[in-house]
């Protein structure tokens, strides 16, 4: 089977993503969720003309420098002045307080002197100065945020200020993680020299949760076809939106995931990607129920699994929540800090560190060890240096492309 180009595989994966349904959640549970419907303001803010400073509300025509005005009252936030500013008068006003009727300017406290009820202006007022106009932030019915937007902390402040108590968001995609391999044990179980700690489970779950998913640990399957098929069968019937398997995706005698998925009715649209690390990657869905779950089979090597999850799983989860995901890889420009060798047919994602900058571009250098089983360099890396298929050798100072390790 010919190797499929990375961007072709990504496009195929995203084309299969059908957004999950929406649900309403209270505002205090909406952080990080993706809007399924626009947020419309339920009030105008500010609701009236208000003062932006502490000072005195005046009629600008009365408040030339050296003019003395008579103090007739006070307007504070939540306690507006009930009367009207008439010629020759002023009202003490505080930040956020409603501008009294008749006033059209604020003289800040520093530009006045006061003796009893007499307020003398030392700086000439100007119409509209230090006033926040009604509706200056937003108006009732205005669209504040659009569907597909992931809610950040500052968005929650905006929504709350608009008097919106709950929002319509995409349901969190349900993702099941199924690990495979006789050699795998969990952290803390006292692994022998012939065993491997199942590290993929934790990195992939973290990436999925950061992308908005609800993650379910489906356990570790042994290298036994009957048990692998049974585990796959149970996972396919578990009401998942996405099933992620790790390990067993290659073609060795103990690589059972692909035949088990096929035997359980999963049609694999992708199997083998022109990618390093991560060539043995699978994607498909049940032939009888094409919508759910989408199945993504990742390599067992932890670096390969992590890189593949960044390239394929994170965009898939975003697309399922209605985020507008670009069709291709989101690469960023950078510059090489040293020479790199020519590349072969697979797109190569090399762990790299940023060692400086040049002309506003980060200077990157690949780390010396790129073995896909070694996690120390993945933790040390700042970015992934991307080498296109058949890219020629390049020297320090030449332009290059990088892929972020964090969203």
TrEMBL record:
Keywords per UniProt: Magnesium, Metal-binding, Molybdenum, Molybdenum cofactor biosynthesis, Transferase
Pfam family, one: MoCF_biosynth
EC number: 2.10.1.1
Pathway the protein takes part in: Cofactor biosynthesis; molybdopterin biosynthesis
Catalytic activity of the protein: adenylyl-molybdopterin + molybdate = Mo-molybdopterin + AMP + H(+)
Domain (MoaB/Mog): residue spans on this chain: 176-319
Family membership noted in the UniProt record: Belongs to the MoeA family.
Function: Catalyzes the insertion of molybdate into adenylated molybdopterin with the concomitant release of AMP.
PANTHER family hit by this protein: GEPHYRIN, MOLYBDOPTERIN BIOSYNTHESIS PROTEIN
Protein name according to UniProt: Molybdopterin molybdenumtransferase
């Amino acid at each position: 089977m010919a190797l499929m180009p990375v961007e072709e595989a990504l496009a195929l994966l995203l084309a299969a993503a059908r957004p999950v349904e929406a649900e309403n959640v209270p505002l205090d549970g909406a952080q990080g969720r993706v809007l399924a419907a626009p947020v419309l303001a339920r009030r105008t803010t500010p609701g009236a003309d208000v003062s932006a400073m502490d000072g005195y509300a005046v009629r600008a025509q009365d408040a030339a420098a050296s003019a003395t005005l008579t103090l007739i009252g006070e307007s504070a936030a939540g306690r507006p002045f009930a009367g009207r500013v008439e010629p020759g008068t002023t009202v003490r006003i505080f930040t956020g307080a409603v501008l009294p009727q008749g006033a059209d300017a604020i003289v800040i406290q520093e530009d006045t002197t006061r003796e009893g009820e007499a307020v003398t202006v030392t700086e000439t007022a100007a119409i509209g100065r230090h006033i926040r106009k009604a509706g200056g932030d937003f108006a009732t019915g205005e669209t504040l945020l659009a569907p597909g937007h992931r809610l950040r902390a500052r968005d929650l402040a905006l929504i709350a200020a608009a008097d919106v108590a709950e929002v319509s968001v995409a349901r969190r995609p349900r993702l099941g993680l199924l690990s495979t391999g006789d050699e795998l044990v969990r952290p803390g179980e006292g692994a022998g020299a012939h065993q491997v700690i199942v590290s993929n489970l934790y990195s992939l779950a973290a990436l999925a949760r950061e992308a908005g998913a609800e993650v379910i640990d489906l356990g570790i399957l042994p290298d036994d076809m009957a048990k692998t098929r049974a585990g796959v069968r149970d996972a396919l019937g578990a009401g998942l939106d996405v099933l992620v398997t790790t390990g067993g995706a290659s073609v060795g005698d103990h690589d059972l995931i692909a035949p088990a998925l096929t035997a359980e009715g999963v049609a694999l649209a992708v199997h083998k990607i022109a990618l390093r690390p991560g060539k043995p990657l699978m994607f498909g869905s049940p032939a009888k129920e094409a919508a759910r779950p989408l199945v993504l089979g990742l390599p067992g090597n932890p670096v390969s699994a992590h890189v593949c999850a960044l390239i394929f799983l994170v965009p898939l989860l975003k697309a399922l929540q209605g985020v507008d995901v670009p069709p291709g890889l989101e690469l960023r420009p950078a510059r090489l800090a040293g020479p790199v060798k020519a590349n072969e047919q697979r797109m190569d994602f090399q762990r790299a560190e940023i060692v400086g900058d040049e002309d506003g571009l980060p200077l990157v250098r690949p780390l010396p060890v790129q073995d896909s089983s070694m996690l120390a360099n993945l933790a040390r890396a700042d970015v992934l240096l991307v080498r296109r298929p058949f890219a020629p050798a390049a020297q320090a100072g030449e332009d290059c492309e990088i892929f972020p390790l964090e969203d």
